[in-house]
C-alpha cells in the first residue's frame, strides 16, 4: 500500500497537475494586484500557488522521503521565515522600495547559486550537460548574478548607505563591455570545450562586478526604473533555470515576473521621458546634488511663505482642490492626516481629488498604496493623463512633498535634465500651495521654478504636522 501511495504522488502527471494549479493561482494572484482593494487577496492567492509549486517540486524530486535532504531544506525554510516575516512586518512604507530591491536581489542570487550547483553536480558525476540544459544554466548564472549584485547597489543607494549621486569610473562603459565579454566568453568556452570549473567562476565573478558597475553610475532619480529592470532580469534568469531543471512552474513564474518587470520598466521610462539604454548608460540625479534656490546658477527670486490658517481659508472656500502627494508625504507618514483633512474639506462642499504621477515616490504605486492604507476612495485617485486637463479649472493645488513631478522646467526649459518628462501641470491652477521641510531639491537634484511663482505659497515644516494644523483650522472656520 505504501509503495502504491508513493508511486501515485510521485507520478509525473500528478506533479504536472499540481504545477498547473500553481500557475493558475500565480495568474489569478497577479490579476488581483491591479487594484488596491484586491491586492492583499491577490498576494495571498499567489503565495498559495507558490507553496503548491514548492511542495510539488519536493515530491517530484524525491526530496520528501529523503530524511537528510528534507532536514536541510527544513532548516533553510525556518531560517528564511525567521528573517523574511519580521522584515516584512517591520518595514516602513517609505523603505518598501529598498525591501523590493533587496528581496529581488535574493531571488537573482538564488538563481545564480542554483546554476552553480547544477554545474558542479554535473562535473562531480562526470556528465556533460546537454545544450538544452547547459545554455539556459549559463544564461541563468550570468543574469542572476548581475541582478543580485545590481540589486544590492540599488538597495544601498536607496538606503543612503551609498551616495545617491552617480558614481562613475574613468572609462566606465569600456569596463562594462569588457566584463560582459568575459562573462559571455567564459560561457562560450564552457559550451564549446571540455567543462572547466574556472570558466564558471569567471562567469559569476565577471557578472557580479558588472552588476555593481552598471548600477553605480545611475543616479537616485532613475533608481525606480533600475529596480524594475533588475526585477525583470531576475524573472528571466528564473525562467532559464526552470528550463534547465525542466520545472514548468519555475518557467511560468519566471516569465510572468520577467514580462511584468519589462512592461513596468518601459512604462516608467516613458513617464520620465527617458530611454532604458540612456538610464543604463548612467542617469542624472543624486539625492544630495545641486542645492535648490539657485543651484543651477539662475537667480529665481524670493519665495512666498504662508501659514496653516491662510492655507485653511484658501482650501475651505475653493470649489475644487487637487492634492499632489510625493515622497515627502511618505517620509512624514502623513497619509492619515491627509485623509482627515480631505474629509473636513468635503464637509464644506469642496471637491477634492488626488493627482498621482507614475513615478511619484520611489516606486510605481507607492502613493496609491499609502493613500489606500488611509482609506482614501480609489475613485479620488486620478492618473496624470486624467488630472492634467483639470488643473486649468482647479482653484488650489496642494503639493505635499512632491518635487520633480511638478517641475515646470520639464515643459519650459530645454536645458533642464528633465526636459520633456511628462509632469503634473499644477502651474496651471489658480493657486498653488507647497508643503515642504525646506527648499532642498528632489531626486533629480535640480531646482523647481514653481516654488518661486507669484501664485505659489510655501508652508515649511513636517508634512504630517502641517496637514494636521490645516485640518484644525478648517474645522474651526
From TrEMBL:
InterPro entries attached to this UniProt entry: DHS-like_NAD/FAD-binding_dom (IPR029035), NADH_DH_b (IPR012136), PNTB-like (IPR034300)
Alphabetical UniProt keywords: Cell inner membrane, Cell membrane, Membrane, NAD, NADP, Oxidoreductase, Translocase, Transmembrane, Transmembrane helix
GO MF terms held by the record: NADP binding; oxidoreductase activity; proton-translocating NAD(P)+ transhydrogenase activity
Catalytic activity: NAD(+) + NADPH + H(+)(in) = NADH + NADP(+) + H(+)(out)
Domain NADP transhydrogenase beta-like, residue spans: 16-472
EC number(s) on file: 7.1.1.1
A Gene Ontology term for the protein's cellular component: plasma membrane
Regions annotated as coiled coil: none
Location relative to the cell: Cell inner membrane
Stretches that traverse the bilayer: 14-33, 45-64, 70-89, 101-119, 134-154, 174-191, 197-218, 225-245, 251-271
Topological type in the membrane: Multi-pass membrane protein
Chief location category: membrane
Family: Belongs to the PNT beta subunit family.
Function in brief: The transhydrogenation between NADH and NADP is coupled to respiration and ATP hydrolysis and functions as a proton pump across the membrane.
Protein name as catalogued: NAD(P) transhydrogenase subunit beta
Organism listed in the record: Conexibacter arvalis
Amino acid at each position: 500500500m505504501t509503495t502504491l501511495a508513493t508511486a501515485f504522488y510521485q507520478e509525473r502527471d500528478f506533479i504536472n497537475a499540481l504545477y498547473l494549479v500553481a500557475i493558475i493561482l500565480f495568474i489569478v494572484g497577479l490579476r488581483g494586484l491591479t487594484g488596491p482593494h484586491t491586492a492583499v487577496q491577490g498576494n495571498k492567492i499567489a503565495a498559495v500557488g507558490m507553496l503548491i509549486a514548492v511542495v510539488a517540486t519536493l515530491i517530484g524530486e524525491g526530496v520528501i522521503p529523503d530524511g537528510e535532504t528534507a532536514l536541510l531544506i527544513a532548516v533553510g525554510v525556518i531560517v528564511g521565515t525567521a528573517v523574511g516575516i519580521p522584515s516584512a512586518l517591520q518595514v516602513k512604507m517609505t523603505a518598501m522600495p529598498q525591501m523590493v530591491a533587496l528581496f529581488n536581489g535574493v531571488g537573482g542570487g538564488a538563481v545564480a547559486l542554483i546554476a552553480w550547483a547544477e554545474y558542479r553536480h554535473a562535473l562531480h558525476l562526470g556528465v556533460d550537460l546537454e545544450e538544452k540544459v547547459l545554455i539556459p544554466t549559463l544564461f541563468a548564472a550570468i543574469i542572476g548574478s548581475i541582478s543580485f549584485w545590481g540589486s544590492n547597489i540599488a538597495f544601498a543607494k536607496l538606503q543612503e548607505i551609498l551616495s545617491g549621486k552617480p558614481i562613475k569610473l574613468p572609462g566606465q562603459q569600456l569596463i562594462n563591455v569588457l566584463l560582459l565579454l568575459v562573462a559571455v566568453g567564459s560561457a562560450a568556452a564552457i559550451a564549446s570545450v571540455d567543462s572547466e570549473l574556472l570558466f564558471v567562476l569567471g562567469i559569476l565573478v565577471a557578472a557580479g562586478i558588472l552588476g555593481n558597475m552598471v548600477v553605480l553610475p545611475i543616479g537616485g532619480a532613475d533608481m525606480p526604473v533600475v529596480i524594475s529592470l533588475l526585477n525583470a532580469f531576475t524573472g528571466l534568469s528564473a525562467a532559464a533555470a526552470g528550463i534547465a531543471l525542466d520545472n514548468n512552474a519555475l518557467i511560468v513564474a519566471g516569465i510572468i515576473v520577467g514580462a511584468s518587470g519589462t512592461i513596468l520598466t518601459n512604462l516608467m521610462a516613458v513617464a520620465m521621458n527617458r530611454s532604458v539604454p540612456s538610464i543604463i548608460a548612467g542617469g542624472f540625479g543624486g539625492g544630495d546634488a545641486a542645492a535648490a534656490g539657485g543651484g543651477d546658477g539662475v537667480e529665481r527670486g524670493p519665495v512666498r511663505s504662508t501659514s496653516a490658517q491662510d492655507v485653511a481659508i484658501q482650501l475651505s472656500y475653493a470649489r475644487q482642490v487637487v492634492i499632489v502627494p510625493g515622497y515627502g508625504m511618505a517620509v512624514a507618514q502623513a497619509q492619515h492626516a491627509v485623509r482627515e483633512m480631505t474629509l473636513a474639506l468635503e464637509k464644506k462642499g469642496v471637491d477634492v481629488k488626488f493627482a498621482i504621477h507614475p513615478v511619484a515616490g520611489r516606486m510605481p504605486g507607492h502613493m496609491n498604496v499609502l493613500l489606500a492604507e488611509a482609506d482614501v476612495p480609489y475613485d479620488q485617485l486620478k492618473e496624470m493623463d486624467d488630472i492634467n486637463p483639470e488643473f486649468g479649472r482647479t482653484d488650489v493645488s496642494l503639493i505635499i512633498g512632491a518635487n520633480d513631478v511638478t517641475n515646470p522646467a520639464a515643459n519650459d526649459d530645454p536645458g533642464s535634465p528633465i526636459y520633456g518628462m511628462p509632469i503634473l501641470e499644477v502651474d496651471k491652477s489658480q493657486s498653488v500651495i507647497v508643503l515642504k521641510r525646506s527648499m532642498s531639491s528632489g531626486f533629480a537634484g535640480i531646482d523647481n521654478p514653481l516654488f518661486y511663482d507669484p501664485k505659489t505659497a510655501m508652508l515649511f515644516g513636517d508634512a504630517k504636522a502641517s496637514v494636521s494644523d490645516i485640518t484644525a483650522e478648517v474645522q474651526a472656520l
